[in-house]
């Protein structure tokens, strides 16, 4: 499509209006059944969803964003012709913009797509974060944006076990090495603030030091265990004074429902989650859990559940380990991992897709009392099986009722 009309000195000439109409027609054809598209005017810059007539008004009144040369949000793709027409730097910048947009879109899902209206505060937060994400690391940098640099560095910090203080010093050194006006955060706190929208959070639940109960629901306000009488709070070994407010034992729970729903807001991930529906073995050889007797049994006993390939088949695994890496230590910490068998074999067992749901603290293994710590996870799994939760599928662009079943557990004999 000819785009010379975008750069006309006046928006009052017929050529500009005709160009806007052709653009709206292309965007409408790309949007298909949807009634809203991203507005590419100079003010909105593809950060707000609007109806077609509103986008038309914006383009006529405010003008078309001149930096938006490849219409990736409205039906165009990156091909050899578009790369030949524009400079490599423009294509790189446009590509980074698109990646940053989709990354934040998975978190701030535009509620127009599911029949609601996005709040103004949420819209502004999305725009501000997107602006940070698109900003180059320093003027002229094409390798890293502010967001990609922060993600890379934070991953390095986590992998290598840097403390906050040591990493703050590293950030200061890197900042001095980079050109002036660089956008590298100066502290770990600032990095975490930028990554906060991706955080799904976790809950700290106080536990009885003898593994009798969790202080939640009706036991939330108690100061001692109703079964064994042990104090909920730490006791100073010297003064024997109860340090109220400092728990003796804490279970960390990472809620599974928001994380499973988040997976479906990514178009690529949502497509991968229905991979199993088209890849069942045809020669009766078992190559993956979809070929197992357990999978077929579920299909036979609950056909309504099996009728929607988006419903999840899960496995639960747990075992104790020594977090301090000292073989002489008897400290035993127990992670509980959720495995998603809807994913293809190459993705199912990658560390990114193994979901940590519970972190049961030591110093001793929970033994037969492990069921006490599994309570919050079991409640979420029961909800996913009994009633399901409403979720948005970015692949089919529709809402659906997400359900899940726990197929089996994986453990050694003490965990069993």
Could you characterize what this model shows?
The protein has four domains: 4-133, no CATH class; 135-198, no CATH class; 203-247, no CATH class; 254-410, no CATH class. The termini are far apart. The protein is built from 15 helices and twelve strands. α1 packs antiparallel against α2 (52-62) and α4 packs antiparallel against α5. The strands form four sheets. Strands 3-6-9-8-7-12 form a six-stranded mixed sheet, covered by helices on one side. It has helices at residues 14-31, 52-62, 80-85, 88-107, 120-134, 146-160, 164-177, 188-195, 256-264, 267-272, 293-301, 303-306, 345-348, 370-373, 375-386; strands spanning 36-38, 49-51, 203-206, 233-235, 242-247, 250-253, 312-318, 334-340, 355-360, 389-393, 398-402, 404-410. The protein is globular. The longest helix has 20 residues, at 88-107. By secondary structure, the chain is α+β, with helices and mostly antiparallel strands.
